[in-house]
Every structure is written in structure tokens, then in C-alpha cells.
Design goal:
The chain is of the alpha/beta class and 351 residues long. It is built from 14 helices and five strands. 41% of the residues lie in helices and 8% in strands. Required for the transposition of the insertion element.
Amino acid sequence: MDRRGLHLDGAERAVIFAEHRRGTSQREIARLLGRSASTICRELGRGRVAAGTAVGAGSGYCPQAGQRAYARRRLRCRPRRKLRPGGALWRFVWHHLVTFRWSPEQIAATLRSMHPDDPRARVSHETIYAMIYAQPRGGLKAALVEALRQGKHRRGRGRGIGRRPGGGSAIVPETLRILHRPEEVDARLVPGHWEGDLLKGASNRSCVGTLVERKTRFVTLAKMEGNGAAAVLEGFTRQMKHLPAFLRRSLTYDRGSEMACHPELARRLKIDIWFCDPHSPWQRGSNENTNGLLRQFLPKGADLRQFSQRDLDHIAKLMNNRPRKTLGWKTPAQALAEELEKTPTTVALGT
């Protein structure tokens, strides 16, 4: 069998040792093993030992020495890891992963845009994941895993448990059903159309209002002083009043009882409100996705009353300065700024 292109193994080195000790020529050994004579010549040189050594006595060749030389060469020929602790690339990945809580895919996409012509200065998101899960147990790995969205100590999907719909629902007039929502909202043609929800805390005793702009994915969070309709009315009014009027076109919400005061909310904000069909969270998919991402900062089982509006504004800022794949790796803040530049109205956006 022609074995050209394959590396010598331990059995072949043993044959070389025995045949060379018997005085067989290098060409004969090569024909016996299906190798080239130059391969045998190089192996004899690399595995040469001092005269009188027990294993190589009488031959000058030691198969163990040849194997060790081979192992050293293999180590040298491997490419150096890009993500080496302490390196510039490592520091960039660490900073954006742990401090800004970006995902590995967001980090990889940003590196590609920063260094389009230098593969050595960027890594794929799979490389980042591999680096995280290859870490030995300890504080370093714990910090990296905790920074991931799901916080799982190994890759793969867990077994999910379906949620059972429950609770009351707001009385929704037929005219406010999502079925009648204008086409421009569905197509995300212009900014100013929002999706909203409540992110619940431990035992549903606390909550945070979440608002996501459909076109730019810009996030606004509202502190709620309670779970009832009055608290939601005041919380959403207070936070959305910071937005310029042209960015308050519509709000799409589910049928939760906390929206019982929706006529007053529409009047205060001069905004259209549309309601999803029962048990149809995909009809406000941007908000559902954002709520999942927010659990990284507002975990399930936590008392959300401990977060001030200033804390929530900081979390929203982190979310709005993450590059998003759906935006062509622009950040929501950049996407919204571009929309503001297109609008002649010079109004500052509060956060």
C-alpha cells in the first residue's frame, strides 16, 4: 500500500529499528513499508542516539527517540491560538463579553467589520464559544459563562417547559385588534411603532415595563411602582414622554389586565394602541426576543423593585449599544440616530 502523505507510526518505527539493525538498506526498508527512501533517511537521522545506548546499541537509531522528535515537531507546527490570555484580541473579547455583555456572534461580527483584511485580528463566534467552554473550572470560566445569555455550563439546548397561559385580560374593542393595524407598522417602514410588555419578578410581585421600537430595536425600560393598571399607566406615560412626538406613533401590546387603562394612555401620549390576539406572543416578536435578552440583567426570581430607573436606563444603554444581526450589525442606537437624521424635527431623545 502506498502510504505517501501519511506520518510514520510506532509500528513502522519498530520495523525501521529492527531492519536497520539487521543491516537492511534504506531503499529495502522503504519498499517494505511502502515509503520513499528519503522518508526512511530522515527518520534515521531524527531518531539517532549516541553509540552504546542500550536501545540503539549496534544501530544508532532509537524508535522512541524518533517518536519524541516527531511529537516536538507536531507541537511547533500547530498555529498559535488567537485567543491567548493577556493578548490584545483576548482583552477585546473579554471586555465586550463580560463588561458590555455582547454575545460571541456580536463580537465576531464587530471584529470582522474592524479588520476586514486581517484574519489574524479577528475570530469567529465558534472560536469564542470553544475558548469559553475549554476553560478549566474556576473563577475565569465562571465569569465567562455567566456573561453568556443563557449562562449554561455546556453547549446545547436544554429541555424546555412550556408556559401555561393564565391571568386576566384587558377588554379589547374589535377596532383595536392587531388585525386592523396599518401595513406600515407590519412592514417596519418608519420608526415610532413600539411593542410593549411587563417583565415579571419573583412571584409576580414586581415588574419592569419593556418597550422596543420595531424598526430600530431601540429599547426603553420603565420602572413600575406596582403591577396594576394604574402603575402601568403612570410608568409607561413617564418613560414615553421622553420620546419626541414623531417617535410615538403606535404601541402593540398583549391582552394583559394591566392595560385596562389603555384609553387614558392613548390620550396622554397621543398614540395608537393595538392588541395582539390571545396567547399569540409571536405577534410582538421583537419584544419577546428582547425580554429574553433582558433576563441576563433582570433574572427570573429576582425582586425587580431593587432596580431604580437609573439602573434600568443603564441596562437599556447596554442593550442599545450592542450590534444586532437583524440591523446589519449596527447598534439600535446607531439605527435610531440615522432615523433621527432623516427627520427635519430637531428634538432631543431622552433616555
